Structure formats: structure tokens, C-alpha cells
Amino acid sequence: MKFIRNRMLAFGASSTVFLMSTMDAANASGTTVTGNVVTSISLLPQLVKALAYLAGLTIGLLGVLKIKDHVENPSNAPLKDGAIRLATGGALLATPTLFDMIISGTTGTGGAGAVVNTMANISFVGGP
Question: What is the per-residue pLDDT for 60?
Fold first, then answer.
């Protein structure tokens, strides 16, 4: 076991040295790295939306199948199991819409938004 661990450490070190020696100096600059991170993170909402749709459809389908099992044999499959799965699937299917509402509400792209530029824009009802 110790022999295998030592071989894995040696392989990891040699592959790290190889990758570092083949990297271009321009690719290692801080602005390029941060640009790549920003580009990668900008695609994260679409990934979360796609995963939420996929999980919502899957769990909703499992809920329908569990309710079908309850209809066929009520003593072995309680109704609450299917109902919980249907509710969870519905919540996951609503998640992308909620994300869009939150993003448009905080950035001001979908209407008035929640962006306040200066304190002069804030007014209180009933104030002087």
C-alpha cells in the first residue's frame, strides 16, 4: 500500500512539473486568470437552471409513479410519499423563474429594480 501511495505522489509531482513547464507566461498573468474565472462564473446561473429543470422533471415523474403505486396498493405506498415528491419537483421547476426574478430585480434590467444611485433618490412617505 505504501508503494502505491509513493508512486501516486511521484506521478502527481511529475505531472505538475510537466504542466507548469508547458504553460505560456502570458497565460499565467493575473488578468488572464481572473478573466477566465469571471467567464466561467458567468455561465453558472444557466447551469443551475438546467440542473433545476432536470431534477424537477425527474422528481415530479417519480412522484407520479409513487402515486400510481399508492393507487395500486395503498397499504405499501403511502400517499404522502408521492405528494412530497410532486411538491419538491414543482419547487425545483419554479427555481429558474425565481432566479430570473431575483436577477432582474437586483440589477434593474426587468423594470425599476432595486438599484439606488444616490441618497437623494430615497423619499419617505409623510416626510417634509
Answer: 95
For 74-90, write each residue's pLDDT tens digit.
999 899 999 999 999 99
C-alpha to C-alpha distance for 54 and 51, rounded to whole angstroms: 5
Task: Determine if the pTM surpasses 0.70.
Answer: no
What is the residue extent of each domain of the chain? 44-107
The DSSP output letter for 101 is H
CA-angle at 38, arms to 110 and 15, nearest 5°: 155
Torsion of CA 81, 83, 89, 94, to 10 degrees: -150
Amino acid letter, 17: V
Q: Which three cell numbers stand for residue 128?
A: 417634509
